[in-house]
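Lab meeting notes turned into a lecture example. A postdoc, R.K., suggested we walk through two folding results consecutively so the class can see how the record format repeats. The first protein's sequence and structure tokens come next.
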Amino acid sequence: MKQESRGKLAKLKGRVKEAAGVLTGDEKLERDGARERAAGAIQESVGKARRKVGELVTGVGKAIKR
């Protein structure tokens, strides 16, 4: 869950930087923002996948106990 949240935050920060770069004409800031947004999206996806695997393992464990 933490990784998912950090990914969302990084995505948001990247979008803000990217938009600021577009508005100011700062191509480096725009590129950095796009990279940070993409990295955040990947981190969020990995966090979601880890959470889903955890839920699956928990479900299997509960099914075995029955």
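The second example is placed directly after the first for contrast:
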Amino acid sequence: MNLENRRAIILESPSGKGEEWLKQQTSLDWAIAKQERPAKPSQMAEIHVTPTDGPQDFCEKFRELRKSRAFVNFMESCTHCGICIDKCHEFLSTADVNNAPVGRAELVRTLYKKGNRLKPEDVDLNKLYTYYYQCTECRRCSVFCPQGIDQSEITRNVRNILTSEGRIAEYVAATMAAVYKTGNNLGLKPKAQGAVIDFLKEELKEETGKDIDIPLDKEKAEILLIPSSADLYVNTDTLKGYAKVMHALGKDWTMDSEVAEVANFGLFASEKHLREFGDRVVSRAIKRGVKYVVWGECGHGWRAATNYTRFRLAEKGLPLTHILQFTDKAIQRGQLKLDRNKNDDLFNYHDPCNYARGGNLVNEPRRVLKAVVRETVESKFTKQETFCCGAGGGLLAHEDAWEDFKMWGGWPSLYYAWKTGAHTLISPCAIDKAQYPHLIEYHKIDMKMKGLMDLVGYAVQL
């Protein structure tokens, strides 16, 4: 998609809502009205954040960013060439200048240029909060930028300050609070997890005629598998896919009710929270006495894990691998018997942003997919050039005032998947699996959505 055909592609949505969306775009910075609901003081307390005085505190912390060589490089090296503008799904959907990577960065570059002369009255915290919570941290701009400027990292630096002083989206804060309470985003307690697992084991027995275990809190297991909590709630075929593979391979594994979550919303809020959530996993892996950790399907969760948690685990002698790397190796070794005819359809694989641009997970998912389905087709923009689903960075919140923004932000990615002619969209990402069904319904596209381990589960022969 580019600036010339942006309007045409928006109007091509079968939803018929494109004209109405374009009519809202009445100025260069109209999207400032599309603000995610901020967290309440009580919610901030639940994630151990104490609100500060505001602009003065922001100035002091912003000056500290000048000690970051990466941040200084990003601020100094932009030539305003504009190459990034039509690469950002948020700009393509809104045409708001502050939703172009260069425009969003300019909001803080003007502050950066003031140096020690920066004053509280120079800081518009409402504007910073609004636009820096409209960035999905997808990193697509960094792929095309001639200088390698990573808007996602600028976003994370700004959000780090905003979070520390109590400016954070309610959805992000509430999700993080659930992790502090229960160890997972959905707030599922061990008893609830056990009840779901018992039900799924009965389903597996009916489907396969075999007793397939889904161990929870098993003592002295060899493998600790971390799922997305959504796998215990809505994406249950994904969890059954994990279980079938482990059963077929005869692995000694378990899940842990205190860390039933691969997602890490600290990536969307602050480095402090990201590390605390990652360290919870390390702590439980050590306590369980496992030999290695297997990570479930979640894009941003894998980015946080492979760039932080992996090294903390390695310090304890514990390797980390993704379930798709694990499954790919088993397939390459001929250890899994698969029937591709079980998935007789035309499938399009969507590269989650944080696999392709933040987690070095591109080839393994494709090899797994081709091993378990009969036919696949690629979108125009794939791998490092993949478009974001529009719900990353904590934008998954279900709010009436926010819904159109989220649905049009994800339209470029769905549009190019739709144009392949595929009937089923595949993504091994929990946020994608939550976002795309709503996108498909909103835009009235005739497609289905599945996780990749779902298809593995359908194809594996036990």
